[in-house]
Amino acid sequence: MVEQRFCKPSIGVRFSGGAPMHITHLIPTYNEAENVVLLIPSLQKLYSKNPKNEFTTVFVDDSNDNTPKIINAFQKKDKSIKLITGPHRGLGAAVIFGYKYTLKNFKPDIVVTNEADFAYDHAKIPLMVKLIEQGFDVVVASRHVPGGTTMGWTWSRHLNHWAANTLFADWIARGNYVSDHNGAFRAIRVKGVLDQIKWKGFPTGFAFFNYLLFKLHQINPQFYEFPTVYSFRARGESKVSFNLKYLTSYLKNVGEYIWVCLKIRRLSS
Ligand SMILES: Nc1nc2c(ncn2[C@@H]2O[C@H](COP(=O)(O)OP(=O)(O)OP(=O)(O)O)[C@@H](O)[C@H]2O)c(=O)[nH]1
Ligand SMILES: [Mg+2]
Question: Is domain 11-161+175-236 given the CATH code 3.90.550.10 in the classification?
Answer without folding.
Answer: yes
